[in-house]
Prior knowledge:
The protein is an alpha/beta fold. The protein is built from eleven helices and eleven strands. It is elongated, with a radius of gyration of 20 Å. The model has no long low-confidence stretch (mean pLDDT 94).
Amino acid sequence: MGDPAGIGPEVIVKGLAGREITRWCRPLVIGSVEVMKRTVQALGLSLRVVEAQGHGQQLGRRGEIPVLDPLERPLGRFRMGVASARSGDASVAFITKAVRLAELGCIDGMVTGPINKKAINLAGHAYPGHTELLADLTKSKEVGMMILGGPLKIMFVTTHLAIRKLPDALTPARVEKAIRLAHRALREFFGVPKPRIGVAALNPHAGEAGLFGDDERKNILPATRKARAAGINASDPLPADTLFGKAVRGEYDGLVAMYHDQGLIPLKLVAFGRCVNLTVGLPIIRTSVDHGTAYDIAGKGLAAPGSLVEAGKLAARLARVK
């Protein structure tokens, strides 16, 4: 469900009100039963929320939304559109339950609604986002965030990090890890036998031979060379203002971006509302919406379910591949 105070419940209900997701899989919502019932009622949809009781229950009956609620007691009162420890703690409980079910093989994959970083930290869960929490829960040593939309598949070296901290964070090891994970995802999930990976530079004009910075020479180029020595077809660091256009034209199968907005601005430009977040390196399949909790419109019926639908379809496709 994600954060109950955000748009997660709304996009789930709207997504399941259509038939696109159910053509691909049998959905089970892991979240608060009471929140799902209130959301259906508020949206005025002719759907029935059914509490899932056991593994033998038939899922996917038309007009029903099966919900598995892992909370020991009802969620209680909270304010829509406001970060709180209560909603943050519930968010982590939903994620934890989904991970455990996926590890046991009870579900084939998980799709996560948006969480609020402030809310989960207020609840005492010190994580900057989903990726780090999922890595901890599954004891995965090497994970990364790939976001897909339209013709682009982008792996990120850093994600939720202040721009001023970027140069110190871009070590050759971290860049090489992102290249390696991109290569793995393109081969294992998308069936590309010899992926062509374009690597973005950090500075304008890829540093212009050191005139605009030496991050490329010190940290990115050593990583691309090491990746190529390991048999990965990775480019030298290329100016970002031309690299993404080349990928759209089909010159690369995937890209590696140095930071959050470097990759997400072009991605959302070509596929806004249809992008999907994929965590690479987990022992389970996990996709997610590409947007946040959108507290400003939470509870107003304005949220679009497009990204959730695409995330559900991708998780189902990857489950079949796996």
